[in-house]
Amino acid sequence: MIDKLKEISKDQLLAExxxxxxxxxxxxxxxxxxxxDKLEITYFFNASPGMDLSAxxxxxxxxxxxPSMTGIYLTAVLIENEMKELFGLKVKDxxxxxxxxxxxxxxxPVLPMLKTEEQLAAGKKGGN
Length: 128
Hints:
This protein is an alpha/beta fold. The protein has one domain (2-124): Beta Polymerase, domain 2 (2-Layer Sandwich). Helices cover 23% and strands 30% of the residues. The protein has helices at residues 13-22, 76-87, 117-124, and strands at 2-7, 26-34, 38-46, 53-61, 65-67, 90-92. A four-stranded mixed beta sheet has the order 1-4-3-2, with helices on one face. A two-stranded parallel sheet has the order 5-6. Strand 5, helix 2 and strand 6 form a beta-alpha-beta unit.
């Protein structure tokens, strides 16, 4: 259960993540969601025993660069590489960059989770 979700801007990301690190919170995971004209990024943290989660969420244009939080939580290297490979998230200062091949093979589809123009058009007509 997400105990608290805080909407932030990408410019606030590192300062907000540092607050979690200073509080000895664990970084749990992150997720990306293709909203059509932008990406919605959510990072999840746990600061207490149990399953209560807190989250930071922000949206960015698909061509915008996002600061990596791997300088604070190195474990974020996996999810940030995943979001980069699957959604095309542009991550600046990623501690370890797998160059688009952490999960995807050389002949895999490019950006497989990014919505296509057809999907976006169908969504505007009431489709999925």
